[in-house]
Write a structure and sequence with these properties.
- With about 140 residues, this protein is an alpha+beta fold.
- The strands form two sheets. A five-stranded antiparallel sheet has the order 1-4-5-6-7, with helices on one face. The chain has a two-stranded antiparallel sheet with strand order 2-3.
Amino acid sequence: MLSKIHNSKRGFTLIELMIVVVIIGILAALAIPRFMRATTKAKQSEAKQILKQIYVMEHAYRQEYNSYACDGETQSAGGAFATIGVEVMSSARYTYAITADSNSFTATAEANLDDDVTVDQWQIDEAGALVCNTNDAVT
């Protein structure tokens, strides 16, 4: 009885592996910049939240004392604008500053979110206008 020798080769050729590597490289080249942009936008929500909180608390302070507070104060991670009751969390990425007088205030948040030369900067004023002066997520 003759036995058939089963000569089946299983596996991938070098060409097939190289094609898969090239496809993965192309997908990574497209996905990584989009992922970085999305994470930077998510980090910006911190600044928006704290600036809106400063806006609310500045107006509450003005209702009571007929003037805005915290002129010239700057706070970074773990600090607090004690006069208006706004605390900057210890994990904060941004540095916050307030300039104020009796009739107006401007609160600013600044951070370098992705270690490039562009600094992300947000600003809110007494009218509640939240503006992005420099957007680190698009550069």
